[in-house]
Fold:
Amino acid sequence: MILLSGLIFILLGKPGRCLEEDRDFIFDGDVRHFAVSTNTVYVATDEKLYQLNHDLTLVQSLTQRGILKGGKGADDQRFYRVSERDEWNATFSVNVLLPFDDNGTLITCGVTDNGCGYCELLDLSDISKVLYSEHILVVPVKRSSASVTFLVDVKRSSPETYYILSALQQNKSTTTGCSLHSEAVYLYNTNNKQTGGIFSYNSDSSTPLFRTKGVAEFVDGFQISSIIYLFSNVPQDAESSKVRLIWLEVKTNKVQTMRSLRGASLHISDSGDKDSRLLASSVVPGGPPVLWSGVFSVDGGQTNTELVMFDISPDLTLRTDEDPDFCNAVSCDNRNFKPKTLKPKKVLLRQNYMTSVLAVRHKSWMVFFVGTGDGQLIKLAVDNNYHTTCPRVLYRASDDRKVFPKIHLDKVDHKHVYVAFQNQMKRVPVSKCSTYKTLQECWSAQDPHCVWCGSNSCTFEDECPDSDWLSIPDDYQQKMVSYDVVKDGTEQITLNIQTHVTVGQKATSNFACQISASSNEFCSRGGPPPQFPQCTCILSNSALPAEGLAVTVKIRLGTNQWSEQLKLMKCSDIRGPPTSVLCQQCIDVGCVWSQNGCSWATAGVKNYSVCQMVESGMNFSKPEISSITPSVVSFYGRNHAVLSGHNLSDVTRVRIQADMDCTPRESPVWNNTGVSLTFHIPSTDSKGVVKVCVLLPDGSCHGNSKITYRSLPACTAITPNSSWISGHRKIQVTGSLLEFVEGVIHSHTLQEVRLPQNRNSQVDPQACTNLTYDIPAAENTQEVFTSTVSLKVANATVDCPTNITYYPDPKFTSFTSTKVGGTVRITIQKKADKLELSKAELSVCGIQEGKSHECFVESKSKSNETDSFICVINSTLDNNFQKLEITYGDKTVPLTLTKSTSHMFLPMLIVLLLIPCIIVAVVIIYRSQQKKLTTKMNRRMENLEMDIRNDIRQGFVDLQTEKADLMENVGAIPFLDYKHFASRIFFPESEALLTSCIKDIGQDTVKVQLDECCQALSRLIQDQVFLTSMVHALEEQKTFTIKDKCALASLLTIALHSNLSYLTEVMEVLLKALMQQRSNAQPKLLLRRTESTVEKLLTNWMSICLYGFLRESVGQHLFLMVSALTQQIAKGPVDCVTEKALYTLSEDWLLWQAQDFSSLKLKVLFAVGSDGEVSEPLEVDALDCDTVEQVKEKILSTFKAKFGFPYNTSVRDVRIEFEKDQSFVPLEEVDASSEVIGEVTMLNTLKHYEVSDGAMIKVLSKKTHPPLSPQGSLKDDENFSGKYFHLIDPDVEENQRKNQEKKKFKVKEVYLTKLLSTKVAVHSFVENLFRSIWGMPQGRAPHAVKYFFDFLDTQADNMKITDPDVMHIWKTNSLPLRFWVNILKNPQFVFDMEKAPHLDGCLSVIAQAFMDSFSLSETQLGKNAPTNKLLYAKDIPKYKQEVKAYYKQIREQPPITSREFKIFLQEESKKHENEFNEPAALRELFKFIQRYFTEITEKLNQNGAPSELTEQLHHVKSLFDGLKSCSWS
Structure:
């Protein structure tokens, strides 16, 4: 079963994951044409034809190289294909690719190098098989000619009625030796059974005529039913053209088909469209009517383009052959007919550089895939009312690669489209469903392909089981839930809520709305019931508060649940000067805007468009925009753009909107002087031109400027690719669009190299392709290393492919000077290196008599070990230069003339005479230093003694002044629900079983129907004889481990959870057997460990029965105790690496090595959005010794305590900055300034960054504000504790420290008082917790405790056990030890929280004290006793008396009857029914039965079980075996 489930997961799950990945194929040569058959893609390049599978894996390729043989004339030459290795003199350039599925052939036509036509019929499944070839011209000679070729079917019955329609641009200037045709449109045969044979265009009676008046450019063509559609651009005059549509009716022969010619003109505007041209088109599947989309150029070029939709249904009432541009005659001149004009249904999209379009239908939506000239694939959905959704970019190339004019759909899965570029084919998913993680995101994407599945994922409909899904409706809606507030004449207020979704069949059967507000009863009970898709609420109170009323609407559809927050207000209270902002506020709360005021709504859809017409009632000067610098940016945006103009003082934001944007983006402004302001240009998903206007406080937007988004800059080369370590070498980056680069970043330094602000490509054209900067220096190293280079573009980076290598600085060794005429010629010697230092990078000056003379470097020469530079000083002085100053980068080094050794004799003599004097001086200094060292050591010992005294005194003071000032108000307690609590008890170590046996959220209310196998097994285990025999049989097997016993017990608990009474009976039977087994040996050891199935069963049973008591009586005290411990630990330092803390209860976790620390109060600001806004400051307590990670955790913990809910970003995705000198400095765990001791790095603390009390800290999200150098969590490193340290110094030599500051000597025993002070702080919480456990609310113990203790008493009487100690131990082992200790040590079983290691140490001490309270033995404690025993030594005797009284009260309590306890168990079962996956538990149980089937059968026979039981067991096995066999089949 596991293997089968895995296979199903692989088969179903893998395509879903792969769907989001683009597949591509790179070709040898540029793509000329490509076509798609059922499951194959055919691509023709300059020299090859490729056959690819539908997933773009290569099947085979066919070379198009060959040899032309034959006569001297071009018509006499014949093309013969050769292999790729043979010599060749010609290529077959394919211009037509037609997959002919009906007869299994691929028709390829084109021209050879001699300008003559050539066609081949290839096998559709194997293109290497050439079925037929002929030298015939079917397509134009020139590839640039605008022509169209496709298959048409005359009778639509058999392959013999198919023709190849070829519409050709007539290029009269073409000269070739081969025959040319004069018609514009031809119908060629596709097989030899047709009249004239294959590729013949003649008809039975005559040659079909179809000619054009001018040179028509054919763009597209296709056949729908019996109508052929042809689209072309026809010139009107020398500079303009018009777009023409031709209809042809398919007739029984070619001549009649050509004579059915009718035409129309397509006008995209009323101005005549003199400059409009059709670039690409696609027909919308379905109809009638015949809807068609075309990409039009509105200015005659390629830049300004529009996607327009037309109804091109043929008008067969028009007379045939009456068209001004096309005819069936020898000449089309002097034809003055006026064609029919077609107007567009809708302009769907305005976007620059559109090149291609593909239209498909999905459900009721039309979906368009649009390719652009700058490398984008855009998806646009349109409903039946021609309303467009927000376009989405499915693919975006980083450079400006043009998309091929044709886009095709994958015919296998219909979930991908094929997009071709210059030499590349990409298979792009039609949707990015899986990137949407919530129901709201999935719906808001407005993607018809995506549905939100009940399994909590956004996916395709066919991947969602059980039809339990919801998606967008059939028509466009702005919001998933809309509402209006209606007030009738009786002053009754009605809230109408409309859901705008389409749902699967299963989801409609379970529709519900729950509407609530702060008032007790919000909706009156007389309202109509919910009826999908609408809910109605008649307000019980007709008056709304003036400040408005917050309403929560919870909606359920199938297993999908979500909630909406609404704001209701009295419509007449929304008043003020009429502005668009006030209008939107009115409509947002369910009212309507009319006559410049807000009023109660009437039934209908919200109409926000009226707000755009509102004239502001506020008085502002109208701003004007004169320029934006820069106005051309990459799609990463630009920081610190400058907008100039007039009357800008009142501007609050800059609005940026493209035709592709559903909602405009707005950027805040600063440095507003009235005539200029600064703002950020945000990043975008798409390239193109966007409109820019400036916003005023009344919501109105003024100005009409533009910003152009282009591709990213590209870095292709770096010269030179090396530098000297001192840096500042001139480096040149070569690439494209480098004017968008704001800085250069090197990996070896966090410092960014800023580029000049005035660098602009409009001033310097080279700025587009070249960039020069000074490379930064490499600090603190003299070794050779490599640094990666990246370009900073806005808030992102672009990597360069070339690295830069740092070498030591050049070493100049000597120089010589020579007088040559009126100049001095100097030769400089340099040690050979790999820097490739050029003469232009050197600046040399000769120093003579204190004056500097420039030396002009003329040449450079190289040898094996020396480089030589020759420079010339234009001077009439002599050549007596003793010194040179050589400058490279920003470093100047002196070079002195080398002197002879004879000059060194006198200095050496002086040195020899000084040596005896130096020895005497050293002896004197040594004795003096020894005396100073003795004095220093005495002083240090006195300081050490003083430090220890102070530490002891401080510990005493802390102990005496410690107050339990811990916060008791911890807000809402995050209890886990029952099933997650129980699952953690049942399967503490088995994540797989936990996941399979627990239902997902939303499935709890659905009862799972058991299949036949599970029903049979469920009936079988309901037999007590079988179940007890099975348990005993399994436990007798040596291979049946303790882990297996625990799993068996938990699986039985889940399988029998709906019948707790029976489970209790089974447990009692098994317990009695266990007691009999151990009664003769050691009865006191009973239930002490979990070594049998029944002992684990008892743990589970106690957890089920005591869950209510835990929630109601103990849970609050447990959470307060844990919170108090957490707060007390946070008062002192915690070592981030070892997790040890100064304030703890466990000596093992005591941080006694910590140095002095001080408390800080930080003012924390939270970044709101991505544009720099921040929240009000939040005060957070921290310590100066806290690491950056600890500070983040304290900030988020304080945020949750303050506001009652967690911050929306996890610690891992948060980064913080510290305000220093009016700028924010990022705080990192480790950076270049971190202290390093040996090979271990100290984590940075607030003290390291010199953060003072009251400092300002800003919190940002790494997703919204990505750092320049992203740094993951250091704790992810497997060797984290070996590489880093915090408060406990590493064990290294003292001289390896970078920071030699003196640290205090510490003694562990001095800090043991911290254990006691921590105990004092949390003592009241611990006592309250203990007493809530052994307390007796209303004088009665929980039912399960009383029942089980009575059961133990009864068994003791039956077994003649009279020792009261045995009874005490049994009860202690079954309740405190088996249940309560588990809860005390693992609060994460009860609450939604994480348990830190130092907290676990404290909880272990408390749990030990708890168990000592139940012990009967008296422990004698001395000075060597462990501290965890000593800590609660004085409290244990008092607790023991309370425990004895607790046991006595239970014993004296009136017994609970069997009927009462059975009712209690039935109620517990009913409370939590359907929360567990019973079938999964039964299947896991059967695995044990199957493994030990023989042993179980033998045990049943030994116990004398009825034969029906054995037969029933074999029946269950056969059912499961049959299910397995069926599944494999």
Observations:
- The mean pLDDT is 84.
- The two ends are 13 Å apart (CA to CA).
- The first helix runs from residue 2 to 18.
- The chain is about 25% helix and 30% strand.
